[in-house]
Amino acid sequence: MTNQITDTEAGTSLWQDAWLRMRKNKIALASILVFTITCFFCFVIAWFCKDPNQVNLANKFSGPSSEHWIGTDALGRDLFSRILYGGQVSILVGLIATAVSVTIGIIYGALAGFFGGRVDAIMMRIVDTLFSIPFLMIVIVLQAVLSEWSRDTSAWIVTNLNWDKGFTDRITNVLPLFFALGLLGWLTLARIVRAQVQSLKEREFVEAATSLGLSKLTILFRHIIPNTLGPTVVYATLTVPGFIMYEATLSYLGLGVESPNSSWGILIKEGANYLETNPQLLIFPGIIFSITLFALNFLGDGLRDALDVRASKD
Amino acid sequence: MRQFLIFFATLAALVMSGCDSSQTAVDKATDEGILIMGNTSEPKGLDPHIVSGVLENNVIRALFEGLVVEHPSKDGVALPGMAEKWYPKDPQKPDEWIFELRKDAQWSDGTPITADDFIFSFRRILTPALASDYSFMLYYIRDAEPYHKSQRTHLLCRNIAPFKDNWDIVKGVDLGPNGEAELDFNKKGIDHLKTEEMLELQKDPSLFKWPENISEEIRALVVDKNLEFARSGKSLWELINFGATAEGPHTLKVKLNSPIPFLPEITKHYTWFPVPRHALEKYGKEKVWERIPEWTYPENIVSNGAFILSSWKFNEHIEVKRNPKYWDAKNVGINGIRYLPISNLYTEDRMYFDGQMHLTYSLAPELIKYSRERYPNEVRNELYLGTYFIRTNVTREPFTDPRVRIAFSKAMDQEALIENVLKGGQKPAGGLVPPFGEYEASNSVGFDPEGARKLLAEAGFPGGEGLPDIEFLTTDKETAKAMAEALQAMWKQNLGANVKIKQMEWTSYITTMFEKKYDLAAGGWIGDYLDPLTFLDMWMKDGGNNRTGWHSPEFEVLLKKAADTGDPQNRYRILEEAESLFLSERPILPLYWYTRNYLIHQDLKGWDPLILDNHPYKFLKLKREQKSKSGK
Amino acid sequence: MIRFIINRLLQGLLVLFALYTITFFLAKAMPGEPFTTEKNISEEAKAYQRAIYGLDKSIFEQYVRYPINIITEGSFAVSTSKGRPVRDIIAQSFPNSLILGLSALGIAICIGVPLGVISAIRKNSWVDWGSMSIAMIGICVPAFTVGPLLQIYIAAHLPGLKVAGWGSPVDILLPALTLGLTTAAYLARLTRGGMLEILSQDFIRTARAKGVPSNKLITRHALRGGLLPAIAFIGPSFAALISGSFIVETIFQVPGMGQHFVNAVIARDEFLLLGVALFFGFLIVIMNLAADILTGVLDPRVRLDSNQK
Question: Do B500 and A258 touch (CB under 8 A)?
């Protein structure tokens, strides 16, 4: 079948087709498995582990033992458990912030690239402006504005909805973080999508669709955007580590994970100070971080391949 | 392929070109007699009357010299600087000092230095329009404070009846600016009203809110006097009886508000250094009282210290070189100094290991053990005049109760914190004022978890029950975070208290602390001069550095008593009593006394421990040691 | 084309103006003041300090004064945290950032693009996975780890390389490498993605069937389209390299502009902040314009000022 453009009557849809292709891609499947295992560890196994915040100064920097599977950190806290709990925040941050920025970025970039002319000019100049604002300023202002808000909201939720206090506190602390990251994370993605759409809209299939009488927006969302998903997916997987590391910076400024809770970003940032003396503090979180990223990226590649409508079937 | 080969060949050539295999940068510098030292950050300026930081001090000390010079190895000893001799007029009551200046002192352009230079300089730093951060260092001089704060009314009225004997009447009036007042004129303060505004006030006295106990008569008198002065067009300087006077070109007389036996120590601070009037006047005769950054640039600057500024490459380095016109030039041991503004601790240490400098500003805690193992003779750990403490907000529950405060203080395991988190050989603080000289440091602060629990129970929170969540404010530095987390765990374990850590970047942290929006706040204090008063006088009622909301009339009575005591030993005893009282209420929780950890190259001689770390550079020497860095 | 460029530059002015307004008001919204010091200063001194910098005037007056001063005197005000004119600070630090940024970009392109192309050509072979894994290192190992690693394990052992500092040309190498690695990784992956899109298209098949040799196929036909996502990325990324190099600058002691973006915010130095933000905005406008022109050159189907048909 040559005409695969989302013909929902005959044959498989784009997405079903994509899934079929994915299933054959061993690396992508392996990546899904690895990522699922990591999530399982961080979200399920973590509950059975030691308290990640239990300080024990006498036992700092210890090596692997039966009690502490990969040893302890600078304050004697269990490193294994800290990595797992830290993963909760980092994975959530990475995925949610990426999802938000991808959604905004695709829609924004596609609209700009498709309509061109003045619409494009205005939209892109807005992007230029937002890109140039020193992000740190926004963070500090947000932090000043939201710290009271998060405390009050947390108190309200605990009293009125009866949620667990520790859990609620963590959520209300981290939410503004998502907000801050999502606010500006979509900008470069929008540019990339725009470039793609600009090139795609001149193609024959668009002309064909127009002559079929399809509305502009339908063409955009059902025909053009799916074709941009390749580089988009690839770039999206690249933004995940950026978000995770940036969260560490934000947490230090009070807008994010509250001490003594941790995240991969924080563990890596602090571990880097011990490069000469206790490199295991950097290496172990670094390895988990890297494995997750590798998995996400190969998964992204798999997705890209799967969504590539013109890929040869052999 | 070919392009890659060419690329790599060029790269290798570049690398080799920068290669001087026999000598490191530090070896070369030693041979040239140049000291290379880390200075943490780019200075905000080099005008001694404007800046207020330690790193600026490090450069200013090389360029300028004050009345006396710090001894290279003994704390509390003053050597001749611009002054050859100095003594109080009455040793029993040292409230008037004479400084005999040396006759051969010159500025670096040859102009002779006289007592007038000092009077000018004191006046300059006290000029309100210069807006110096550190003017208060000169408040000991008679009439310095009222001049700096433009306390017009005080100066006008203090010698006339009815104020002369009843000054308490008008002192109650807030005549200076009060940002929180309602009325516009109260916001500005009577002392700052212009002529037109004074006229308005004269016509309508209700424009200013006066306290109840001031009679109409007195109010009118105050306004009249101010108006008369404003109309006269005189300057406030003509009104005062400034304590510093020049009795001849080489004799400086300084009258103080109260006897201060340690005045020479205070003059070691750069706020007391002279600046060259004739060099400032090049920018305009009236501009000498304003900020002119250009005068400190290498091509313009004129100074009187052992070195002159030879190069200032913004954010790269500052270089000073030998000043031939310095009075003691023949005894200056090194030829110059290069300051590197390295803000990253680890980069600085690694540069040291790589042979790029003689002296670091600090040593990262994580690298202390590592350095001791590899460079055992090059690691220094010295006492520094400062205390790290945690402020409590005594205006907020639960810290309104001193028992709770002391409980939290006793629950901190200082030794464990120092050994495991700070690792810098700091000393657990037994009190607020660190030990030095003849002052007996307190030992009432210490780790006592049992006692802490008892006190907390007495205060009504047995086992931590009923305690609200406590907010602990701290900065975004990594060591601050580690310390906060350790303390959080200690308070939880020993008291059952729930402490939440609030990390913020520096300016937000300071602002939040100033606004008292915290329960506990990490902080510290470094002494400005070698006397307990620098640690104690900040806790007065409206002391600008207090920030806790605590005050105590008894405490202030003791401080006043000490101020009126001439004999140093008695004075110390009174101050010890004041500190004791302070600690019994413990509005702050002292944690440790500072030490400085840093790396120092074997080639550098004459750098001995000084508790204020204000080493006089002229006594240093650089000599190549046989063994150079290991590892190269 | 000329009209297009002028049009874009005019739009750029609008961008700068919007940027100025947002940054100005955000700066005022931040808690704290430029003269916040740990040791207390009297109210009077603070009032005088504000007056010296013109911060005692009404917000409206300050807002209007700044651009007027730029136009009439070419003055970008004096930095409150450094005590020198903002213009001098930028003039001294920008060249260093430029050199560092260009070098990093050069390294990124030299490493990233070839890796991406090779991976796309030999898709799903171990060459592909190998190159992508190498590229991933740039992403997984952040700058504040790469930098110290290079310092400890390479610079400390090679006599020609200094651990940190910025004096001779060879000092550019390590910081540029640290900075460029992440961008290289992004470029590698984006190039691979873009090349794969192109390579699966019909016209490539046609060309291959016609017997066009492989490397000509790549360079002549595929590269133009394949580089599109990479180019769209390079525009903003170059500007980001110049401004976001804070970490690399502090690790390697490079006197560049990146640190001002962070330090000016913390010091509440709004004049330095505005100067640096506006300068950065200016760079962004120029770089995006260049990227768009390049895109138009490489893909003639993209009409630069196209309106919907």
Answer: yes
SS3 C177: helix
Q: How far apart are CA A287 and CA A222, in angstroms?
A: 39
Highest mean pLDDT among A142-151, B581-590, C199-208, C217-226: B581-590
Check C26 against A191: CB less than 8 A apart. Answer: no
Residue with tokens 């700052």: B192
Measured in angstroms, the CA of C17 and the nearest CA of chain B are apart by 27
> What is the pLDDT, as a whole number, of residue A9?
52
Please give the interface size between A and C, counted as residue pairs whose CB atoms are below 8 Å apart.
180
C58-103 per-position pLDDT tens digit: 889 999 989 988 888 888 888 888 888 899 999 989 999 999 999 9
- With DSSP H G I counted as helix, E B as strand and the rest as coil, what are the percentages for chain C, rounded to 5? 75, 0, 25
Task: Examine the predicted complex and report whether its ipTM is higher than 0.90.
Answer: no
Establish if A147 touches chain C: CB-CB under 8 angstroms.
Answer: no
* Extents of the domains making up chain A: 24-47+70-308
B490 vs A contacts (CB less than 8 Å): 55
State how far the Cα of B318 lies from the Cα of A289, in Å rounded to an integer: 42
Residue in B with minimal Cα distance to C247: B344
Mean pLDDT for chain B overall: 88
CATH architecture of structural domain A24-47+70-308: Orthogonal Bundle (1.10)
Mean pLDDT along residues C32-48: 79
Q: How many B×C Cβ pairs under 8 Å?
A: 157
Distance between start and end Cα atoms, chain A: 14
CA distances in angstroms from B127 to A27, B130, B142, B191, listed in the order given:
74, 6, 15, 15
Are C291 and C302 in contact by the 8 Å Cβ rule? The answer is no
Per DSSP bridges, beta strands B520-526 and B470-475 are: parallel
Tally of CB atoms within 10 A around B46: 23
Q: Does B508 touch chain A (CB under 8 A)?
A: yes
Q: How high is the pLDDT of residue A301?
A: 81
Largest CA distance in chain B: 97
Taking each helix axis as running N to C, give the angle between helix A280-307 and helix C126-140, from 0 to 180 degrees, rounded to the nearest 10.
Answer: 130
pLDDT tens column, A270-290: 888 888 788 889 999 999 998
Q: Which residues in chain C have their CB less than 8 angstroms from residue A301's CB?
A: 132
List, as ranges, residues 466-495 from B with C-beta within 8 Å of A. 476, 478, 481-482, 484-486, 488-490, 493
Helix (H) / strand (E) element for B533: namely helix B533-536
Q: How close does chain A come to B427, measured CA to CA in Å?
A: 18
Residue B361's Cα: distance from chain center in Å? 17
Between CA B190 and CA B227 the distance in angstroms is 10
Please, how many CA atoms are within 13 Å of residue C76, restricted to the half-sphere of its CB? Answer: 21
Cα gap C64→C89, rounded to integer Å: 23
Residue of C nearest to A246 (CA): C142
